[in-house]
Every structure is written in C-alpha cells, then in structure tokens.
C-alpha cells in the first residue's frame, strides 16, 4: 500500500512506538492501533496532496506574473 510510505517518517515511527506501548499496557487493542495507523495514512496523504497542489498553483501564478 503506497499510503504506508509515510509510516517510516519520524512522525510515523513515533506514532507506531506510542501505539505499541499502549498495546503492551493493554490500554488499546491491536485492532484499534491498526485503525489509528490507517487513519494516519489517509490524513498524511491528504495533507501532502493539498500542500503539493497549493505549491504548484503558486508556482504557476508566479510564472504568469513574471511574464506580464
């Protein structure tokens, strides 16, 4: 799954370590931890997609303004 690429970031690793600690202390179930990771995958991908779109739009606008 391409979404899982971001789990190897500092933020993703910290999340996984925290979830593992919560599982070990029996504060959450492994199923809940998986749901949290899946939500993280979706959220990080959506946030990065929006940021990339904004950057592209800004660069296009900057080039248009330079040519005027």
UniProtKB/TrEMBL annotation:
Organism per entry: Bos mutus grunniens
The protein's name: Transcription initiation factor IIA gamma chain
Similarity field: Belongs to the TFIIA subunit 2 family.
Alphabetical list of SUPFAM superfamilies matching this protein: Transcription factor IIA (TFIIA), alpha-helical domain (SSF47396)
Pfam families for the chain: TFIIA_gamma_N
Protein's cellular compartments: Nucleus
GO CC terms: transcription factor TFIIA complex
Annotated coiled-coil segments of the chain: none
Alphabetized InterPro entries for the sequence: TFIIA_a-hlx, TFIIA_gsu, TFIIA_gsu_N
Assigned keywords, A-Z: Nucleus, Transcription, Transcription regulation
GO BP: any one term: transcription initiation at RNA polymerase II promoter
Cross-referenced CDD domains: TFIIA_gamma_N
TM annotation in the entry: none
Predominant location category: nucleus
Domain Transcription initiation factor IIA gamma subunit N-terminal span(s) in chain numbering: 3-48
């Amino acid at each position: 799954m391409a979404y899982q690429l971001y789990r190897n970031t500092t933020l993703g690793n910290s999340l996984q370590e925290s979830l593992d600690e919560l599982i070990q202390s029996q504060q959450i179930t492994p199923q809940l931890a998986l749901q949290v990771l899946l939500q993280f995958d979706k959220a990080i991908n959506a946030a990065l997609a929006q940021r990339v779109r904004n950057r592209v739009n800004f660069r296009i606008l900057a080039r248009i303004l330079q040519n005027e």
